[in-house]
Amino acid sequence: MIHQKTRTAGARPSRVKLNAELFAAFFRVGIFGFGGGPSSIPLFHQEVVKKYKWMSDDEFGDTLALANTMPGPIATKMAGYIGYRLGGIPGSMTALVATVLPTVFLMVLLLTILQSNKDLPWVSSMSAAVVPVVGVMLAVLTWDFLKKSGQSLGWGKAVLLTAGAVLLMEGLGLHPAFLILAVLIFVFLPFNKGGGDE
Amino acid sequence: MIFWQLFIAFLIPGVLGYGGGPASIPLVEAEVVDRYGWMTTQEFGEVLALGNALPGPIATKMAGYIGYTEGGFLGAAVALLAAVGPSLVLMIGLMVTLLKYKDSPKVKNITKLIRPVIAVLLGVMALQFFVESADEAGIAETLLLAGASLYLLEVKKIHPAFVILAALAYGAATAFI
Predict the structure, then answer these.
(1) Does B18 touch chain A (CB under 8 A)?
(2) Of B85, B93, B89, nearest to B13 (Cα)?
(3) Which of B15, B11, B9 is nearest to B35 (CA)?
(4) Which of B64, B76, B171 lies closest to A127 in CB terms?
(5) Are B88 and A81 within 8 A, CB to CB?
């Protein structure tokens, strides 16, 4: 967890500009995220790491891991925390509103206009076409994490850990929160010397 | 008191739902249909179907819409706050605590060890999306869309938003043919 407030050093954007950027970033995440919060993770990555560089890849991975150990919707935990880190409580509010409100508004509007939700073949056909795209985006992000893992741990260790995670989560049905907690506990165990030796 | 009921109804799924919004939907249904009887199972299913077809987090779309139908705009605000607030406060609290120890070599080690776990989580999710798409749209269609989007995203480096828009347009167009 090597988080530093990367944006506080150097030219610091004004509060208004920061909030406008937060709003734009998380508005796009909300409005282009089909398939619920978890499927919008690649979009978060695109905005937060690639476009605005608010976090490094590592910080993003850590934040995602922590978010996964806690209950509740993942998209709002990510948006709310990233907003908080960059702009305090106002930043957090901006990020939340941008993530949540446009799509809630759309939902209320559509359902109110239609009274009851009859079949909307074109709406569901549009969403169905996005599903494989989200699949590709997630697969690309998966590969990113695997590659980084191989580089930092060495491929032997990385493959071993990955296989272990697959076995525990998919084979034995262990909830990811427990696995992440187990890693956290392992790192803090007294006999684990940790740090810098690999 | 409808606002209190809305708060409780969406607080419980928010606090107990591990695995993000989609995982908490059965918990929402238990409150909204079984406990408070605001909707029938059928109605809940219809709202969920439309919610799934629209973009954005599903938990907040459900909370916002059901809050609105039961208690107007204030109801929507109360339900959203209950769905989002507690887990966000927990998240910020934990991250701020960990930040204090960010220079500890042990904490630095977490990043390395947690990466494969995150990779597996994302990989499994990717697989689920491909399987779902193959079930609904067929394997040929899935391969076509996946291949095209891989090419556009990774080779042409086109922004994901435009690729998603293109897929939406494709979906709408094929619905009318």
Answers:
(1) yes
(2) B85
(3) B9
(4) B171
(5) yes
Residue A167, chain B, CB below 8 Å: the answer is no
**Is B86's Cβ below 8 Å from some Cβ in A?**
yes
Name the closest residue on chain B to residue A153, using Cα atoms.
Answer: B112
Average pLDDT over every residue of B137-143: 92
* Half-sphere exposure of residue B141: CA atoms within 13 angstroms, side-chain side: 17
Chains A and B form CB pairs within 8 A to the count of 373
What ranges do the domains of chain A cover? 2-119
- Note whether B132 contacts A: Cβ–Cβ < 8 A: yes
Please report, in angstroms and rounded to a whole number, the separation of the first and last CA atoms in chain B. 50
Distance from CA of A107 to the nearest CA of B (A): 7
A34, β-bridge pairs: B55
Label residue A39 exposed, middle or buried (CB < 10 Å: 0-12, 13-18, 19+): buried
pLDDT at A92 over 50: yes
* A53: closest CA of chain B, how far (Å): 16
What confidence tens digit (pLDDT) does each residue in A29-76 have? 999 888 777 888 999 999 999 999 999 988 898 899 888 888 888 899
What is the residue whose two structure tokens read 């796009």?
A28
3-state DSSP assignment of residue A34: strand
ipTM: 0.79
Q: Please report which confidence band the pLDDT of residue A179 belongs to, taking 50, 70 and 90 as the band edges.
A: confident
pLDDT computed for residue A163 by the predictor = 92
Q: Across the interface, do B60 and A76 touch by the CB < 8 Å criterion?
A: yes
| Range name among A20-29, A52-61, A75-84, B40-49 with the lowest pLDDT average | B40-49
